[in-house]
Predict the structure of ABC transporter substrate-binding protein.
Amino acid sequence: MNPSVPPAGLPADAVRIEAATGSGAGGHLVAYSSFEPYELADYLEALSRLLPDVAITVWRMPTSSLTAFLLSDPEGDLVLGWADTAAQSPGIAARIAPPAAGGCDADGFYRPTGFSLAFVADPALLQARGAEPPTRWSDLAAPALRQALLFPDPRRSGAGYLALTTILQYYGPEDGWRLMVEIDRNVIDYPGSAWEPAARVGQNGAALGITVRVAARRRLSDNPALIQALPQDAIGAEAEVYGVLAGSKQQALARRALDWVMSDEAADLFRHHAKLLLRGERDPALFPINPERASRERPAVLQRFDALMRLRAVRAPKSEATP
């Protein structure tokens, strides 16, 4: 494939990561990811030092778009970060190269990192509403937070699906959906990424955004007046996957890039971006979701979420909510 030409069938919401990369004299890899653009730019820069003669083009897209795209069997070489639940979708296994020696799981994926949930909050806006920073998921249903929340759309965003899955797996389906209905009454809208809820906190009355720690750290560095809060009852967490595409004609070269993912240098950079390092001791405060169950239940969960959105649309004229 011509690396200067976008791959056939590339989703409309895919963006090319503009960052330093190798010369291309030794080869050119094409990678796909659902990670945030700013972290991918850092990873590309690090890979350019490890593989100075290898150019790497990375296309970033939301989790759901990446799932559909990989199922279409696109040209390319590797997955450079994706949600574990999405990676277990039916049909994906055939798109991933068989396992190789050295840190790879039986399904061909590497899982050195994970992501976890966090809230980004504007203390001034919370105080104006008479609300405290939330410490539990149920706090998000408080009347004081009416039309104050941003929740990533679980149909598109890996962070959104992790948040919804955490609620359902921790509270149980019946109580979890009851709580989600109550939370929805406080939601302004459902952006399609983890970054947007964090980025919009403090603007237009948005007092709190549900997001992941990676995005929270970035947002707080941009605006130190904001704070991070954690749902201490269930800080949802999920593994992230990296792998070589079965159709790649450069699998050996792609595995050299993934060798970096498993390195100590990469671990330092992952830690800088507030990722979970899964090769060490696990944080007992986290609530690791069951990814197999989350993947299996995804169609039914999203069908019910769609029903919630239809109810939301019915009541929209009575509020400022956006469906």
User: Anything to note?
Assistant: The chain has eleven helices and twelve strands. The longest strand covers residues 110-121. The CA atoms of residues 43 and 255 lie 15 Å apart. Confidence is low (pLDDT under 50) at residues 319-323.
